[in-house]
Amino acid sequence: MHRKADHRPPRDWRAWLFGPPLRTADAPHQTIGKFIGLAVFASDALSSTAYASQEILFILAAAGSGAFGFVFPISLVIVGLLAIVAVSYEQTIHAYPDGGGSYIVSRDNLGQTTALIAGAALLTDYILTVAVSISSGVAQIISAFPQLFEYRVFLAIGFVWFMTMINLRGVKESGAIFAIPTYFFVITMFITVGVGLYKHLTGALGLVIDPPEIEVAKTLATVTPFLLLHAFSSGTAALTGIEAISDGITAFREPRSRNAGVTLILMAAILAVLFLGISFLTGKIGATPSEVETVISQLSRTVFSRDSLWYLLGIAATTVILIMAANTAFADFPRLSSIVARDRFLPRQLFLRSGRLVFSYGIVSLALIASLLIIVFQASVNRLIPLYAVGVFMSFTLSQAGMARRWWKIGHLKPGETVRERGSTLKHDRKWLLKMVINGFGALCTLVVMIIFAVTKFIHGAWVVLILIPTVVAFFLTVNRHYTSLARRLSLENFIGQPMRAGRHRVLLLVSSVHRGTWQALAYARRLSEDVTAVHVALEPEESEKVRQKWKIWGEGVRLVILESPYRLLMGPLLNYIEEVLSSQESGEILSIVVPQFIPSKKWHELLHTNTADALRERLLSRPGIVITEVPYQV
Amino acid sequence: MHRKADHRPPRDWRAWLFGPPLRTADAPHQTIGKFIGLAVFASDALSSTAYASQEILFILAAAGSGAFGFVFPISLVIVGLLAIVAVSYEQTIHAYPDGGGSYIVSRDNLGQTTALIAGAALLTDYILTVAVSISSGVAQIISAFPQLFEYRVFLAIGFVWFMTMINLRGVKESGAIFAIPTYFFVITMFITVGVGLYKHLTGALGLVIDPPEIEVAKTLATVTPFLLLHAFSSGTAALTGIEAISDGITAFREPRSRNAGVTLILMAAILAVLFLGISFLTGKIGATPSEVETVISQLSRTVFSRDSLWYLLGIAATTVILIMAANTAFADFPRLSSIVARDRFLPRQLFLRSGRLVFSYGIVSLALIASLLIIVFQASVNRLIPLYAVGVFMSFTLSQAGMARRWWKIGHLKPGETVRERGSTLKHDRKWLLKMVINGFGALCTLVVMIIFAVTKFIHGAWVVLILIPTVVAFFLTVNRHYTSLARRLSLENFIGQPMRAGRHRVLLLVSSVHRGTWQALAYARRLSEDVTAVHVALEPEESEKVRQKWKIWGEGVRLVILESPYRLLMGPLLNYIEEVLSSQESGEILSIVVPQFIPSKKWHELLHTNTADALRERLLSRPGIVITEVPYQV
Fold first, then answer.
1. Do A39 and A182 touch, CB atoms closer than 8 A?
2. What is the CATH number of the domain that holds B392?
3. Model-level ipTM above the cut of 0.90
4. What is the pLDDT of residues B224-235, one digit of tens each?
5. Which of A60, A444, B248, B635 has its CA 20 to 30 A from that of B135?
6. How far apart are CA A348 and CA B527, in angstroms?
7. Is there a contact between B1 and A559 if contact means CB atoms under 8 Å apart?
């Protein structure tokens, strides 16, 4: 028999906080188009324009302001890399319409172990994205209101849980909420860059007035290749978040691949234009990198003026987008962990959806770990950022290498031949060689960047990630081992089922006092078996006497055992008696313990009632042959 | 059938932290003698000698140092009051050998409402005792190590939970732990006062060298009766804690009343001698009240010298006793709330004992509320202390008034006549009039003190308590109303039991996959009823196909329903199906839902398994006619 099923909405505080539960049938409507897709998945990538140029300047500053001329060339190289990676990912999106994150592509083409490395790299990076982007948003707020410095950790954690709540409401609504600030930022930045370029061309763009002092080393370094590489690797922060769309294809409306692919190209284009524009203007106005004032702020107040509305809007938009960037991680982390969980490398709960059709376990796990990171690193961006990006480039490399391998396999198919593999369909493609070269070259580039990054940032914190990723992989394997060994031990192969319905079925009915609830439970207990014993723990002599008297009337002839408890212990005497019963248990015999449980209509009334069934369950569930049944009664 | 029962010791982290569970039979050995009794119940009262004299000086300072001469006379009056209260309580202890706290005495003689007021007053006061005494202990530590000021709240809460843990281990062990510091304090103080008096008599006692400056008002007040009354009421802080023993008589070894009574008199004597001695010497050495240096410290360094060992010992002992004072509340709060809970005015759980034979719910509740208070008041003694003591004197008054009323009843018995009342036995007593006068006079005195206290401290915070006590009483009444109305609605009077075993018994068996655990659950389900339906939610198509195939082999012909769930919701389709089944339910019909539940051997493995039974329980227990049974399987 096969049935379609819908979802019954329960009414409680969750409905109020996260919205009423959605019917399963609503799920297709929970997918998003290109417009909202850009907002949900691009905020991370786009937000990096707010700091990428500045990160390059910071490194170049070691060689004095004379080296600042390298910003634009380095930015050009990065945009070139961006183009390669974007095209490479565009191919992935079409090859994997059901979601082609690094994990899936690696799994299908490079094997499970490699996939786990990619998965670990990405998951750690999503967590870091939340911690870093929210911390840097908070840092922006603090540079405006320094008196809030003391509360930075509280603020950051507040934002994390604010984002969590919005995301628990569901992807569509969170998309709508996030669309406004993302587009607000994009428009503000385009206007700033556009007006800046116009003023530059008309010669009206001056230099920054009173730029913040450069914090340079006492002895100036010369411009070495290592320095340029270091600056380049810092600037590649601009690429983080580019993979987000390929992980989240399933969130898009049909035709998914097309929608997702267009969004990706759109995102890359916006990112490239803004990043190049900012880097270019930065050089022209003579902006300097500083902890006190961001380069964006210097640019904005040079293009417009310090007290113009545009300046204020620019700063506000940057702050908001930095915090919003965390949302990309909130969209992708739960999705990826759900995929890893389906393969049984993460707890099964991450695989299921909640009433709002989102992966709430994943969302809450992400928020918890990110909060922990923020507390440990005291919301300091400087201490968090070196941990960031190694993982991203590791997963970039694996994903594109996997794609290259896939084209190689496709190249060896006969024309017209089609092979179904685990996650996707391999179909002969005449352009396989070109496509393989594109993905292969992308993989090579990102591998090189990853190595540059790991080397230049090693002592600053990249080493933490190089320890973290194997640890996460080890965790995946432990979880998997548990599930596989469990499945093996529970397997019905070679299992000789004991004969059903053999053996005695003893039932113990717990009686604290004799009332309608007890009567109901007694009725249930007698349905279970003929062999029922009522058990009462004598906490108070008068009460026990009442139980004894009433049982004579209402007990239906069932035997009543009264357990003494001179020191008012409930569980002690009970457990002892059960132990005694169990010790005389024969093979195939089952003991059911029936507990009448009052279910209060008001939640707080629960505090006024002991939940004996729960307490028994905690103590006894590990003993085979016992079933604890709570018979609820309501008034 | 009647059985004696012992207690099976489970082995877990609790055993490690709180000690192995005690057998019920050990309970008598958990009682204590006079020596440890004094340490457990007197630390609160005795610790007040550390600050009572100083509190008087603080008030007198308003009229300049000339008014300090009033300290000794005021102290004499307070000791007189102490003597009256102690004798009065001694009578109570003998009249109520099973514990004669204010609540019980009021309940038996003045009625339930009055008793609730006394109970509320005492419980709030116990909470305040913990907050005040630990905060003042921490203040002592901070005056030695000012750099710890920032961490005062953490420190205070740390101490609260340290005390909680010790108390969860049980009264006897905590007694042993507390005996050392209490006696250390008593001995150190006796030596200080003794040596001080000796030096005074031999003329060797000088004045305080460099006393701290007095913080006096700019315009000196004159010594008015109100000022003296205010000083007196501040000094009555010395009496707080005197009632502790009468609440805790049951903790004493037999003969309880005698042991408790002797301990009370001993405690009062020590308290009187120390308090008078300190007040006397304080005047002689010209000590001044100050937030910077306590009077005890000034006394100690004048009697010995600043760098003597004795001085250090004195300060250490004072700090420790102040923190220990909280222990009295830890001993009495749970005991009193257990009594109130037995009368159904507080949650029933407070009435039961834990494996270590202590009232753990009460202990933990006390710690929680006290921690909250410490956080709210930022561990500030000055802000907490005015809340304190109104409640104590209120309960003193009610308790002694109750006793007076009791003697009045006894006075009207015929010689030799005996009447059993709820908590105690009324027996003719020739000296009833004298005893009534003693208790009545005690009640009058403490009533007057309470009024003085409430008036003089009203604006400083006493008003909070005057709001709090009625609130607590209202809570008692709400809880009681819930229990009584529940009992009425569950009553079997006029209840016509439905015929047992009528109606259909449907069983739904949840199947996520088919394995040995499922087999066990199926066997159980078929024992329950002939009418079993297996239900599987199709989260993954391949998995569902496997279930369908395996069920053909292992399903014993039981019908299998597969619920579609395209969006990987588990609960949604399930609840919906159950709802459908329920809608066709006839009267008298019962639905049992059997859930196979894996019980992992390692605790952390629980994180890897969904507990479907718990989730169903949360959603469905409020619906009548459903029983959820989890059939555990272990590997």
1. yes
2. 1.20.1740.10
3. no
4. 888 888 888 888
5. B248
6. 30
7. yes
